[in-house]
Write a structure and sequence with these properties.
By secondary structure, the chain is α+β, with helices and mostly antiparallel strands. The protein is built from three helices and twelve strands. The protein has one domain. It is globular and about 45 Å long. The two termini are 19 Å apart.
Amino acid sequence: MTDPMSTNVPEGYYDCALGLRLGGDPETMYLTFGTKLDSTITPPISIGSVTTLGTALADALKSRLDPDWTFVEMKMQAGPAGPGSGPGLDGPIYTAPLNIPGTGQLTGTLPVNSAHLISKKTGQGGKRNQGRFYFPGVAEGGVNDLGILDASQVSAVNTVFASFLGVLDGSATFDGMWILHSFPPGSAGPFLPPTQVISLICQPLIATQRRRLRR
């Protein structure tokens, strides 16, 4: 059995997870990403700032989810954390509960094993400088039998994720979205510095559970 991968979170950065849940499903799904503390802010951050960020991010996306979906928490782990920090030296973890339901009125959505594939674009080459996450709520009438989204659906999802990224870019406490690079535990480095995300793009082909397991 191989060792799990570990995310390297430098000092001043945060490993983030925005949690959402479908009614009746006990499993929380997460949108994961990194962010950086604004240079004008002195740590530690407050739980209030985590709540404010999570609320704003959920507000940016809630129109693309039916009321059956609820954003339930925002988690942030402060750096340093990961293989570069050493045992017991990881930064604190902040967890802010949320209760923000979706406000969309989609006429039927695909099961949760189908999702929008959102690519994190950095403007730099190489697979290591790219990332992705999966966003549920695919409109049943907005995708064909081959799993290709209508152009209008792609545009609508891109609009809310532009707002999502805008929350991070415009925050008074945090500074943008960043890809935090992963390495096997015990790696001696050197560790790649985080890469800033400049856009979030919805791919026309939806992700299914089978495709996700292949990626």
